[in-house]
Write a structure and sequence with these properties.
This protein has 713 residues and is an all-beta fold. It is 0% helix and 50% strand. The protein has no helices and 59 strands. The strands form 14 sheets. Strands 20, 22, 23, 25, 30, 31, 32 and 34 form an eight-stranded antiparallel sheet that branches. Strand 22 and strand 23 form a beta hairpin. It is elongated, with a radius of gyration of 41 Å. The two termini are 51 Å apart.
Length: 713
Amino acid sequence: NLPRITGFTPTNGVPGTQVTVQGANFTGAASVRFKETEAAFTVNHDGQITTTVPAGAQTGPISVLTAQGRADSSATFVVGATVPNDHFANAQLLSGALAIAAGSTVGATVEAGEPLHAYTVGAHSIWYRWTAPSNGTWTVDLAGSDFDTLLGIYSGSSLFTLVQVAGNDDDGDRLTSRATFTATAGVTYRIAVDGYGDASGTVALRLYPATGGGVLYATGFELWEGFWGSALAGYGGWTKYGNGGNGVVQEFLPGYGQNAYIGYAPAPSSGEALFVWTPLDYTPNTNILPVVRFSVVMQIVDSSTPQYDDFEWQVYNRVGDRLFTLDFDNSNLNLYYRLGGSSPYVDTGFDFENGTTYALTMVMDFGANQWNAYLGAIQVVTNQPISVGGAALNLGDIDAAWIPGTAAGDNYMLFDDYTVRAEPSRAPVILLQPQNQSVTLGGSAAFGVVARGEDPLQYQWRRNGADLPGATGPVLALNGVMAAQAGSYSVVVRNAAGTVVSQNATLNIAQPPNLTPWQPAGWSAPLVVSTATNTTTDAVTLSEGQTLYLDWAVANDSDTALTNRFHTRLYVDNLLRQEWFTDGLGAHFYAFVTDFNLGVLSVGGHALRLETDTASAVAESNEGDNSFLKTIVVVPSAGLPPQLSGVSYPPGGPFQFLLSGEAGRAYTVQVSTNLAQWSVLTNVTGALTPVTIRDPNAGSHPRRFYRALLQTP
């Protein structure tokens, strides 16, 4: 039940930053430390702790202590405001027509003279810079960021000369931001990401060309657009077929200025209908811009007489073939659709209310030969064909139609904000695929995808073909990566119109450098003590008055080279004796020192300890193997008396103790029950390290006494 740390998020922060530690066996934790500095913490469950970076904390591993033991993180938590693109002058470079970036505003600051991004107060901004490769329109999207963002896009080369070209706080009902701007080739733009108020967190940024197409036709039926008479047909480019009431009124739809209408009076001739439209004559490019989106604000006003009529939106191609119809039946308030030719009317199952203003949207995908209709957020027609019977797939006009009953009523249809747009495919299309990543163990990686299609787009990331729970944004950020996270990553992008799967991207995880005392080939140990120079073999006997020489070696036993300067220290009996430094070390190389003059040591036992990376300058894959301990015995020139120590009686095992003597000399260990009569327990030969002596019969006597005799002085 030893505690175990598998990762933590974020990987850096200032004192006061909240950190989530993942692992196992955390229940009952007694202490959490940032490189030995105690921190406040809460055990959320057996596998998670929430803690706060304490004042005075230093960069180093995070530790968790329980009654069962201690766990140290393999990755290093970096203390301080180490956000690399915190300041304007250090803006991170984005390159190309499409770019993805992952970052963090945790610990970031606001500089003096920095503007309010999206004209809103924030406190933790980071910066990016991008040079437009060509003239055009681009979008910056922060969807997938995990906090309430602010976005500012600027021209200008310094904080004091910035001119905002676009900005955004919330993108519709999302708390993340999105802004579109027109760029000029060769101009460098500065992009700032901040958080609303004091919000900060992980940033997912995507930059991509804005969707092509644009408005084919739009009008609000205002005076300045050419609608200055009371009639609709004959003004602003609108025409009609048939006779009947149509015109322009003022504020019948409150807040919309002038509105158009069809219906009321005079009634069309018996058995006829009235159609009003403006010519569009558009042939979609089904490879690039296959979609046409028609939107209009409308309301059906009821009759004051018992006669009720139908009001329709009819879509025609360029040769006058009716493609489809959406019908509002004022007699029963039901909504119907009708396909082309002689197709019958089909009840949608939805109804409407007189006097209620609706936002109607009809989305026509000419590439897929499908259309859909929406009243507000409610989809009332789903995936019906635009063309039946071979009618040409292009757009001639979208007509407002009045279809009277046997006797026309004085009901009518108001409409405004009539807009027709050309758009890219409704189905998702991936513009920028996830890219391969190579990081060191404990580092950070980010996979991103730029996709385009009808909103809302949904994302699901996979590893080795299996869904990753909670990974549902356009950017997948991995912090404190572990070896088990290596593999193949892809993302499924879907919306109501279809699904697309990205290419696979590989995450390669390299072990960070690891420093450890090392025993090179031909050496007797990583730390060698001898009585002569030019040897890397321990002396058999270290005698009183001899000058001792020390050799040591430290290796980087990983696949990753290190460039940091690190220090190695030698302690003798816990006192610092010497310190060395090494400027970098290649993968699987070792640094060494030979024939260091240790001088003359006193008679008796001595503890030598070699410690490497003593200042924690290197983030290592294993911080627990940086020491090597060696015990030596300096004997008198006349021979060292034996010493007995280390008494223990392990459960289920025999009574035992240690005999320390001079290497290569013979000793007899004797046993007695009364200190008068002695018998031989065993004969041993002394070694450089203490010899374990066991007495399997000790438990058969109320008491036992032991002594050791030097037999060969």
